[in-house]
Design brief:
two-stranded antiparallel sheet; two-stranded antiparallel ribbon; 26 helices; 2% strand
């Protein structure tokens, strides 16, 4: 009997439990029993090294199969946080519209057997990702969303969307926000690739709306700027953006995404483009850009982003966003310098740190995401180096009007311009062969040509200033008149000392306009470019107008220039959508300005040489040494150049619309017109 008892104790007892591996194989599961309790692993899992998990029992209890939930059960379901109902079926159809891990699909009429018991969240029909894919597959096959049939027989769509104020207020649907996000990514983002890829990912829209509301709203404002057929979309986005910016200016909470949002607004100036600025462009956008970049820099300094322009080390390396912050602060420097030079205002940003040379490897966020993708990092480095040259030219030649006047008279600027020309050519030799899309290559070359123009225009003005100074010293008793000088050169450009600078300035202006006319499609590229590329075209056309009035252009060259400017005007006009778009407004400005040439063509004098050419002694010009050999001031024979700077858009607009009588100029000394406003 004792032997039989020991045998019974050692005999393996059969259990009603089985592990998941054996249950899946439908084979016997030999689980060891220790002290009367079933333990793991079983013999099979122990021999194969698998994880042994004991499965639950499906016996007993009330089993629900293929039951349709009624309306009361839906009322008791635990609601998913951050979600509100939306009437748009498109959001239910697109899997990219799910906000985040908290999102779920409420699909009535298809419950599954579940063993979760009291821990069920009320969505028994979706237990894993495969269930969600099955729901989507069914929706796609049926072509319609799932409907819930309640106790009263009615039908209604049941789904959820992300929590965003414009959706909560019913002003935008989630499908519209996704459409605007994709529109921005395709048309606008390549020209200023500051927005992170995760923000532009529609599958991550829930996180973007929750954590980056400033940046998301700025994207929506810019993308809806040209939707003139749906004005309510832009109005809703811009009003909410104004509220957010007001909160930032009042000291509200902000992080790096708020700085990115303000920089986007400074580049595209969407408010003026859809506001009541008038039908003729006069630089109203510059105020908007100046204010936005100013607030961005203030927030950037407060957040300590300027630290990331130096070599990152210590605790900064632990910051998961340090690469993004370096990119944003460098973009702050570029926007600040570009806008400040345009306005002739002081710089706010200190820029990259001393002895710090930022290269494309310092901006991994802009590296190509796939083989053959756009190399935004190289384009960004090229733009940064070009901006550094812009800053140096402005600091040396244009920053101090008093020093500029003395440099004009003494000719001390020649060495500086020669040095800058060499640096500009060096930039072209490195980046002129960069391989990228045609539109992005055009923006780089337009910026390059404008820098050439900005540098060499200083010498053009200096030559005119010296000629005016000679005339004023020769006729000191004559009453000082508002300038109306024409034909300062009249085919004698080659006889002056700064001829090479003047020729290169003309070449730069014509090359920029030719680039715009040849390689930039108005409807598919120029329309979506940042504001500065419109203004580069405007500045070039205005400079050519001033050069034409001064007699720099020969008759044949003048005809070709007028045709080129007319083509630029047509392309600017085609790029505009509505009367307030920059393309429409600045095409009207140039048309009014160059129409003055046609109206006054019959008043041109046949003999208006003003500078004696020593290499053409038999010319029909005035006798050498006479006052007329310096300048002629006959108002009847000369066209008015205008008391405006070629970069002062407000003065250019006044002159184009009203002539010189429309300008409110306190100091009508014409030579100061070629300096930026200060």
């Amino acid at each position: 009997a004792a032997h039989d008892g020991a045998s019974d104790a050692n005999r393996e007892k059969r259990t009603s439990r089985a592990c998941l591996t054996c249950r899946k194989r439908k084979s016997a599961c030999h689980l060891p029993i220790i002290d009367g309790l079933v333990s793991t692993p079983c013999a099979r899992c122990k021999s194969t090294g698998q994880v042994c998990v004991i499965g639950g029992s499906n016996r007993g209890g009330r089993r629900v199969r293929k039951r349709t939930l009624d309306g009361s059960e839906y009322a008791n379901m635990n609601q998913v946080p951050h979600m509100v109902p939306s009437p748009s079926p498109a959001a239910f159809l697109d899997p990219a519209l799910r906000s985040d891990s908290n999102n779920a699909f409420a699909r009535p009429g298809a419950t599954r057997e579940s063993s979760l018991g009291s821990n069920n969240l009320g969505m028994n029909e979706m237990l894993n990702p495969s269930d969600a894919l099955g729901i989507l597959a069914q929706i796609a096959s049926n072509g319609e969303p799932s409907y819930h049939t309640g106790a009263n027989g009615g039908s209604s769509i049941v789904h959820y969307t992300l929590d965003y104020p414009l959706i909560r207020d019913g002003r935008l649907s989630q499908a519209r926000i996704v459409d605007l996000l994709r529109r921005y990514k395709h048309w606008y983002h390549p020209y200023f690739p500051l927005v992170p890829a995760a923000t532009l990912d529609t599958a991550d829209l829930g996180r973007t709306a929750r954590d980056e509301k400033h940046l998301l709203t700025a994207i929506l404002v810019i993308a809806s700027r040209d939707l003139v057929e749906e004005p309510g979309v832009f109005v809703a986005c811009s009003e909410y953006m104004r509220t957010l910016v007001s909160a930032l200016a009042a000291g509200g909470p902000a992080n790096v995404e708020a700085v990115e949002a303000l920089l986007l607004l400074a580049e595209w100036t969407p408010y003026t483009s859809r506001g009541d600025a008038g039908h003729v462009g006069r630089g109203e956008e510059d105020r908007e850009a100046w204010m936005h970049v100013g607030v961005a820099l203030r927030i950037g300094y407060f957040l300590g982003l300027d630290r990331y322009s130096f070599a990152v080390k210590g605790d900064d390396v632990k910051d998961p966003q340090w690469q993004r912050k370096r990119l944003v602060w460098t973009a702050c420097y570029i926007s600040d310098r570009q806008i400040s030079i345009r306005l002739g205002r002081a710089f706010w940003s200190r820029g990259p740190g001393p002895l710090t040379t930022l290269r494309k490897e310092d901006f991994p966020m802009l590296a190509p995401s796939e083989p053959g993708g756009e190399d935004f990092a190289s384009i960004f480095q090229a733009t940064l180096e070009l901006t550094l040259l812009f800053s140096n030219v402005h600091d040396v030649l244009y920053s101090n009007p008093g020093n500029s006047m003395r440099s004009h008279l003494s000719g001390g600027y020649i060495k500086y311009i020669d040095d800058f020309r060499s640096a500009i050519y060096g930039w072209k030799s490195v980046w002129g062969t960069l391989t990228c899309s045609a539109n992005l290559k055009a923006t780089l070359l337009m910026s390059y040509d404008y820098l050439r123009l900005y540098t060499n225009a200083f010498a053009f003005h200096a030559t005119v200033k010296r000629a005016l100074a000679q005339d004023q010293s020769a006729e000191p008793m004559k009453q000082k008149r508002s300038p109306s000088v024409q034909r300062v050169f009249y085919n004698n450009v080659g006889a002056v000392g700064d001829a090479r600078f003047i020729y290169e300035g003309l070449d730069a202006a014509k090359s920029l306009l030719s680039m715009c006319n040849t390689f930039v499609e108005p409807e598919k590229a120029l329309r979506y470019m940042p504001l500065r590329f419109y203004l580069y075209c405007v500045y070039s056309a205005v400079f050519l107008y001033r050069a034409r009035c001064a007699g720099v252009l020969s008759a044949d060259e003048e005809r070709s220039v007028r045709q080129m400017v007319q083509e630029t005007i047509n392309r600017l006009e085609r790029s505009g959508i509505g009367s307030h778009h920059p393309g429409s407004r600045y095409s009207q400005l140039l048309r009014l300005l160059w129409d003055k040439v046609d109206r006054k063509e019959h008043r041109r004098a046949q003999s208006t040489a003003t500078l004696t050419n020593p290499y053409r002694p038999g010319s029909d010009g005035p006798t050498p040494g006479s006052n007329a050999s310096i300048l002629q001031h006959s108002p009847d024979l000369n066209e008015t150049m205008g008391d405006f700077s070629w970069t002062d858009l407000d003065a250019i607009g006044n002159f184009a619309v009203n002539g010189n009588n429309g300008n409110q100029v306190n100091d009508p000394v014409w030579w100061s017109g070629f300096l930026p406003t200060d």
